[in-house]
Design goal:
Order of helices and strands of chain B: HHHHHHEHEHHEHEHEEE
Strand content of chain A: under 5%
Radius of gyration of chain A: 18 Å
Order of helices and strands of chain A: HHHHHHHH
Helix content of chain A: 55-70%
Shape of chain B: flat
Largest sheet of chain B: 4 strands, antiparallel
Helix content of chain B: 40-55%
Number of strands of chain B: 7
Oligomer: heterodimer
Structural class of chain A: mainly alpha
Chain lengths: 202, 312
């Protein structure tokens, strides 16, 4: 079975599961939770950079999804629907943390306004440390600096970067999740990579 | 990247990003690759992006923990117990109330629920004349008997079967069990009964007993699960094979089929080596990923036929 066929099969199975859950087989919801917990957690963790917050968001997302299951019409896959819920809840959490002074970072200068695509990241005043050999660290330390860099990116760039890196999510699905155009995803990813490269000093 | 070089027009960051993601059509891909062969600046650019991509993917993968799905499931079930499926939008509104408002509201709801459950708990104990004094654990969760979740947990021996509720309650208290439930009427499911039989290390469980017994299970923290699995495997299969082999000094080895995680496999190879034996595999063990939790690496197991032999 090709990867595409596998995805279609998985999507159809999910839709069938949702139909049966709504019809009364509630225990099937456990399977959906178990199937998607890790993936949803990775998205929330990538966006928030904090395990406790990510776990809280994912649990809340599954609870909300269950409560609204009858409103799920199947236009998008269950997985994409869950992605949207997790991203939305993560945004709320991030904003809430920010108001309380948690996760203060350079991206805060851009928060709260819809900066135009070309401007995203321009005002961050990131020092260009490309030539600094001390920044070329390897292994865990490098992973950590990449993760910190992600945390310092403007929210919109961070979202596309995280979604893309969770199981190489296709552009179309990222666009569906963020409810934007595929062209926007492409330009944000390019910009995000550029910003992140500078943040980690490569 | 040198976009100012007229002889070697660089493709631009968006084009390189699309190339990295395999999103270019054939013609564009060929052009970009031809350019990369001749432009060290752009090669450096994409190499840096590749390193960052790989590091970030690793970082996200390492954020996972084996018991995470179980913990989330337990939390979701606690929240949803006896709740009807509704039609409300699951999407949050951007609000200034913040999570603290919802947390307080949820606490009130949970608090009321806890009081009601406590009343039920005590009244049940009182009516049955029990005075066990057990540590308080979560209220019974609806049976998972028929769910994929349980079958998976059985197959992977992520669960430990216990003979009675008291022991399980103590276990839940000691280990911070992430899920606790009751199992009933296992007799209709032969597979499940077999799993219970093997997990308990018994030769067989008579159907009449299995049909009536209430099995209580708990998912424990990862380390203790792994220890249990190791103990189980040691006692029930490997030790036996080792004994057979040790008695037959000139034998060619004994076959055994194992279904273990990578870490357990590594440990087993070391243990065999320490006791003068070696574990041979005619074919490389194939990783299996359960459908149950998608492609999460936490449930990958290796299933293969091995030969346990004396080390030459």
């Amino acid at each position: 079975m090709s990867e595409m066929e596998e995805k279609i099969r998985s999507r159809e199975e999910d839709l069938e599961a949702v139909r049966r859950i709504v019809a009364g087989e509630r225990s099937l919801y456990d399977s959906l939770v178990m199937k998607y917990s890790n993936r949803m957690f990775q998205i929330a963790f990538g966006l928030l950079g904090n395990r406790e917050d990510a776990e809280e968001v994912v649990q809340d997302a599954f609870v909300r999804a269950f409560r609204g299951l009858k409103s799920f019409r199947g236009d998008a896959s269950f997985e994409t629907w869950m992605h949207r819920i997790v991203v939305n809840l993560s945004r709320n959490k991030y904003q809430w943390n920010k108001r309380r002074g948690f996760h203060v970072n350079v991206s805060m200068t851009l928060e709260g306004r819809d900066a135009d695509e070309a401007a995203l990241g321009e005002e961050m005043n990131i020092p260009d440390s490309t030539m600094d050999p001390n920044r070329l660290v390897e292994g865990k330390e490098f992973e950590q600096s990449v993760a910190e860099g992600i945390g310092k990116m403007p929210e919109k760039l961070r979202e596309v970067m995280v979604l893309r890196h969770v199981h190489e999510m296709p552009y179309e699905r990222i666009a569906e999740t963020l409810e934007c155009k595929v062209g926007t995803v492409k330009s944000r990813l390019a910009r995000g990579r550029e910003v992140l490269r500078r943040l980690v000093g490569l | 990247m040198n976009s100012g070089n007229s002889k070697r027009e660089c493709p631009g960051s968006e084009m390189l990003s699309l190339w990295l993601d395999g999103e270019l059509d054939q013609e564009e891909r060929v052009q970009v690759e031809a350019h990369l062969r001749s432009c060290p600046d752009c090669r450096k650019w994409v190499d840096a992006d590749k390193r960052i991509d790989e590091a970030f993917t690793r970082y996200l993968d390492q954020s996972l923990h084996r018991d995470l799905p179980f913990r989330i499931l337990a939390g979701v079930r606690r929240e949803l117990e006896r709740e009807p499926i509704g039609t409300v939008s699951p999407f949050p509104h951007r609000t200034h109330l913040g999570p603290s408002f919802f947390r307080i509201a949820a606490s009130i709801v949970v608090g009321i629920g806890a009081v009601l459950l406590s009343i039920r708990f005590f009244s049940e104990n009182h009516s049955s004349g029990s005075s066990s004094g057990l540590p308080r654990v979560s209220a019974p969760i609806p049976s998972m008997e028929s769910s994929d979740a349980f079958d998976h947990a059985v197959t992977n021996r992520d669960i430990r079967f216990l003979g009675n509720r008291r022991e399980s309650a103590q276990l839940g208290h000691d280990h911070g069990a992430v899920a606790l439930t009751e199992m009933t009427a296992v007799s209709s499911d032969g597979k499940l009964r077999d799993a219970i039989t093997s997990a308990q290390g018994l030769d067989r469980v008579p159907q009449s007993i299995a049909a009536n017994v209430h099995h209580v299970w708990a998912v424990q923290d990862l380390d203790s699960v792994q220890r249990d699995i190791a103990v189980f495997a040691e006692k029930n299969q490997i030790a036996e094979k080792k004994r057979v082999l040790a008695e037959n000094k000139k034998g060619n080895g004994v076959k055994l089929n194992l279904r273990l995680t990578k870490g357990q496999l590594v440990d087993l190879v070391r243990e065999c080596s320490e006791s003068g034996m070696e574990l041979l595999s005619p074919q490389p063990p194939q990783p299996e990923t359960s459908l149950f939790t998608g492609d999460a690496d936490t449930v990958v197991q290796y299933n293969a036929d091995f030969v346990l032999a004396h080390r030459p």
